[in-house]
Structures are given as C-alpha cells and as structure tokens.
Amino acid sequence: MTSTQELRVAAELAPPKAFDAACRMVVDYLAHVVPLDAWAVTRVADGHQTMLVTADSGYGLAPGLSTPWTASMCQYMVAGSAPRIVPDTRRVPDLERIATEAASQGMQVGTYVGTPIVTGDGRLFGTVVGMNREPVDPGLVAQEPLLDLLSSLLSSVLEADTAAVDSARALERAVSDAESDALTGLLNRRGWERWLDREDDRFRRFGDPASVVMLDLDGLKEVNDTDGHDAGDRHLRHCAAVLRSTIRSTDPLARLGGDEFALVAQVGVEDAQNLVERLREALDSAGVPCSIGSAPFTVAGGFPGACAEADALMYADKRARRAGRSAPSPRPHPPSLPTA
C-alpha cells in the first residue's frame, strides 16, 4: 500500500461518532430519570438555537428545529440572570414573558431546565435543555448537580470529538491529488462529492453553521467561440483564482465541470450573504462575472438539501440577470420554534 493510500484509509476510519452518541445517551437518561415533557441537546450559532438530539413526549420537538436565540429561555440561563432549574416559569419574570409569548403560539412552558455546553476554550457551544408543559414540584432543583455533571461530560466529549475531526480533515487534505481539477487546481466533482459525503455527518452532529454557494461562469461559450479554447481555459483559471482569493483557505472550493463552480462557506447565513456580495463584486471587477445561488446547511436537510436549493437559486439568478432583474434570496433559517 502506498503512503497516499495509507493516509486515505486513516482518514476514512477516523473519527468515531462520539459526540452525537453521547448526546443521545444523555437525553435518553434524563428522560428516564427526570421525566419532563421534552429534553434536548441544542447548538447555539448564527443567532439561533437548533435542536441536535431530542427525547420528546409532549411538544413534538425534532432535530433541526430552530428558534432565534433572543426568543430562547436559555439566553437568560447562560447570562446568569435566570436559574438553571426553574420548576415554575411564572416565578422568573424573563422566563414568564417568553412563556407567555410561546403560549400565544400554542406552546406551553411551565417548567424550564437548562445548562450550558462549552468548548475547550470556554465558548458557548449549546445547551442541555428540558421543558414541561405544567409547573412541577420545587424539589426538581435537587437535580442541578446531575445536570451540571452531564453537561460537563458532553463538553469533554465535544472537545475530544472536535480534535479527532480536525485531525481527520488534515489527513483528508493530504490525499486530495486524485480529487483535484487539472485545469484550476480546485477540487473536481469527485472531490467535492466526497467532501460533502464526509462532512454531512459531521455538520449534522455538531450543528455547525454553513452555506453552499453555487456559481456558473457567464459567457464562457462566447469566449471559446470567439477566441478559442485556450482563451476559455485562461478564463476559467482566472475565475478560479478570483474565487480562491476571496474565500477563506479552509472553505472547500470546487470546479464541478465546464463553467460550474461550488463552495461551502463555513459561516452563518448573514456572513454567507455578505460573502456572496463580495464574490459578485470581485468577479464582476475581474471580468469573470458569474450567476450565484446560496443556501444554508440545515440539520434536517443536510448538504444535499442545501446544494439543491443553491443550484435552483443560481439558475434563478442567471435568468434574472439575463432579464435585468434581481434574483430571489434563499430562505434565511430552518423551521423555527416559538421557544426552547
């Protein structure tokens, strides 16, 4: 076996799916020991709180459901202005206000339980959260040491799993020669599809924010027909260079074939939209204009859903540009909850 093949085998064997398995164990255990109507592990990113794993018997919560962080009871727990265990949300003004707003949308929250999950450097990753439709016995507060222990366990598993993912990604980058486009040096379609297959599971279990951006180079046929295919190849290489200089080096960038390009911006929706505008300006200024579509990754739809939506929006943009109109924008966030 060659060194490249050995690296590929190592990359495909690592890492184990530790964090999502630990989340599943924690919510199932809490649902058994502290039987509230719902328990969940959530991710807080891009101004939203998204359900990663749920154990629900009363609300219909499911992975991928999201709520704005400003509408979440957890914001007050994280800030220290609300307790981690609130048997009766009517007794904490901030939580009572959110519970009243949620009730107006058909979601009753009489009890709130939450504790943060933090990264190795102390940043907020998400929360373990429990809810009950009716207030419960005040003795529930005795479970706070258990709750803190379980969230600390998840923080430790998260750190180890994140380190393993980073190592695996480094190995994968080292074996990408066969997955590179010979003309531009970017990922080819095979490399792009393998990246999406590998990362879809990782992004789903961590709930990381990301957006898929699809691009189609305008006018390549005219360049080929007028100046020849060598000029067309230079046009493609120039487009690739502009794209590479505008995005982060860690964001995957691919030429899918012909005049189609694609990338994943590993940032939130707002930053991704800002990136699209920078890309459009840079490409237009460099004389390699492209039609562009962007769509966010969601836990429910994964990268397949984001790619399909971004591709459709890219073709809508192409039609709009030809007609001199503005293209439609992508949906900003996944389906939302009144509160979490």
| Strand order of the biggest β-sheet | 3-2-1-6-5-4
- The domain count comes to 2
Main beta sheet: 6 strands, antiparallel
Q: What are the secondary-structure elements, in order, as H or E? A: HHEEEHEHEEHHEHHEEHEH
- Please report the distance between the alpha carbons of the first and last residues: 51 Å
Rg result: 23 Å
Uncertain regions spanning at least 5 consecutive residues: 1-16
Compute the average pLDDT: 88
Shape: elongated
Tell me which CATH architecture of the largest domain applies here. 2-Layer Sandwich
Under CATH, the topology of the largest domain can be stated as Beta-Lactamase
Helix proportion of residues, in percent? 40-55%
Domain GGDEF: 208-333
Biased composition (Pro residues): 329-340
Pfam families: GGDEF
Protein name: GGDEF domain-containing protein
Overview of this protein structure:
This protein is of the alpha+beta class. The chain has two domains: 12-164, 2-Layer Sandwich (Beta-Lactamase); 178-323, Reverse transcriptase/Diguanylate cyclase domain (Alpha-Beta Plaits, 2-Layer Sandwich). Helices cover 46% and strands 19% of the residues. The protein has ten helices and ten strands. It has helices spanning 3-13, 18-33, 74-79, 93-103, 144-174, 189-206, 220-227, 229-246, 269-285, 302-323, and strands at residues 38-45, 48-56, 66-68, 85-86, 111-118, 124-132, 211-217, 253-257, 260-265, 290-296. The protein has a six-stranded antiparallel sheet. It has a four-stranded antiparallel sheet with strand order 8-9-7-10, sandwiched between helices. A hairpin with a 5-residue loop joins strand 5 (111-118) and strand 6 (124-132). The protein is elongated. The chain starts with a helix and ends in a 17-residue tail after the last helix. Mean pLDDT is 88; it is low at 1-16. Residues 208-333 form the GGDEF domain. Residues 319-340 are annotated as: Disordered. This is GGDEF domain-containing protein. InterPro entries: Diguanylate_Cyclase, GAF, GAF-like_dom_sf, GGDEF_dom, Nucleotide_cyclase, Rev_trsase/Diguanyl_cyclase. Residues 329-340 have a biased composition (Pro residues).
